[in-house]
Amino acid sequence: MTKKIIVKIPELLKRHGISLRELSRLSDVRHAALSELSNGKRENINFSHIEKIADALSISDIREIIDLVEVTD
Prior knowledge:
Layout: E1 2-7, H1 9-16, H2 20-27, H3 31-38, H4 47-56, E2 66-71
Antiparallel strand pairs: 1-2
């Protein structure tokens, strides 16, 4: 089985009661980049973006932001 990293942006937005645009403003990460991460359309994850999201939302555990899941081929 293959593993895939999932960026849990939809869950973060819901938990913090903010929009994607607001997260973009708070984290200083482009809205388009956050949208691609949120929709799983980004092949590579920029970990500076993950750090900025963590800082913006006062998250200290990376597992709140990303998850590793098994994907069946």
